[in-house]
């Protein structure tokens, strides 16, 4: 199974305008794009979407692009609990952004929700990162083959924590089971609304293993509290940790994350949001964040991002059908 998410290489070199120094050497006021910005995260604190939202704030403040930020976290069902709230409460608001990504695409399909990620305005795809499969440090699974042997023998007895049902983590597990000759519906998958609760379950050995983005578990792995068995990228993401592909399981998958505007905003308001995130992307602070967090740059805006979303939805739906997680 080769990657179903072939990312379009896209970069932008547009710098923020008004870079002259103002009084006391501070950046000129003209550089500021929004006096205030509302950022909606349809997941609990501590996960990848929340991390992207906070990173957006960090880079924006460093570049003086936004005066103040307001955050709201509403987790559940891969973003499907929070999404209707954002749509109804922020409709037509030009200074509102929602964080979302690949997980929300799968969750909308799996849960057959009346609204989906297609009901908000695409602004920018920002990052992608491979997944990682981990176990508690005390686990009997010392290497990936120990885990896959247990999955093959008794998938129902091998509980795995991850994000919401139908998301990337669930898809990775389903594809692994399929490669082992089992059905994805046999999985003992424990879905969590945020990265924090999933980490707690893994660290407390309440589950046998966990799947998430590399950045969410990397610190726990480095600290010796979790053991990494494999990652899902084309190449290795952590020293000493093999990929699924080099371990004989032909799965390569990345988890993209991006930003969306509220429904009802006009073309000029959408352009202002795109110009703002383009300025964030071009900033030194953002480049440093990408490096320190181990995120891959997947920047894509405008029509190209909208076209990517259309393809991604179709491909996700097909994969979920193939592994028995969607009708």
TrEMBL record:
Any Pfam family: TctC
InterPro entries for the chain: BUG (IPR005064), TAT_signal (IPR006311)
Stated family: Belongs to the UPF0065 (bug) family.
Name this protein carries in UniProt: Bug family tripartite tricarboxylate transporter substrate binding protein
Species whose genome carries this gene: Falsiroseomonas tokyonensis
């Amino acid at each position: 199974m080769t990657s179903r998410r072939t990312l379009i290489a896209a970069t932008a070199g547009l710098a923020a305008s008004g870079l002259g120094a103002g009084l006391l050497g501070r950046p000129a006021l003209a550089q500021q794009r929004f006096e205030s910005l509302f950022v909606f995260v349809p997941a609990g604190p501590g996960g990848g979407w929340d991390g992207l939202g906070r990173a957006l704030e960090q880079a924006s403040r460093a570049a003086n692009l936004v005066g103040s930020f307001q955050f709201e976290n509403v987790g559940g069902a891969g973003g499907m609990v929070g999404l209707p709230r954002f749509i109804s409460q922020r409709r037509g608001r030009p200074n509102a952004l929602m964080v979302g990504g690949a997980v929300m695409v799968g969750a909308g399909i799996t849960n057959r929700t009346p609204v989906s990620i297609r009901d908000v305005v695409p602004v920018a795809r920002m990052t992608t990162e491979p997944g990682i499969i981990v176990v508690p440090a005390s686990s009997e699974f010392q290497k990936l083959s120990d885990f896959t042997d247990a999955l093959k023998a008794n998938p129902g007895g091998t509980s795995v924590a991850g994000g919401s049902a139908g998301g990337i983590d669930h898809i990775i597990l389903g594809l692994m089971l399929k490669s082992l000759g089992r059905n994805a519906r046999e999985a003992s998958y424990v879905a969590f609304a945020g990265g924090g609760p999933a980490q707690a379950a893994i660290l407390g050995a309440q589950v046998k293993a966990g799947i998430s983005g590399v950045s969410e578990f990397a610190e726990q792995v480095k600290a010796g509290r979790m053991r990494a068995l494999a990652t899902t990228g084309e190449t290795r993401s952590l020293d000493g940790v093999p990929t699924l592909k080099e371990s004989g399981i032909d799965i390569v998958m990345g988890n993209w994350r991006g930003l969306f505007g509220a429904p009802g905003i006009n073309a000029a308001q959408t352009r202002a949001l795109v110009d703002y995130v383009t300025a964030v992307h071009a900033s030194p602070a953002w480049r440093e964040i990408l490096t320190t967090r181990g995120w891959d740059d997947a920047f894509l805006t405008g029509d190209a991002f909208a076209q990517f979303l259309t393809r991604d939805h179709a491909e996700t739906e097909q994969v979920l059908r193939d592994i028995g997680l969607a009708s």
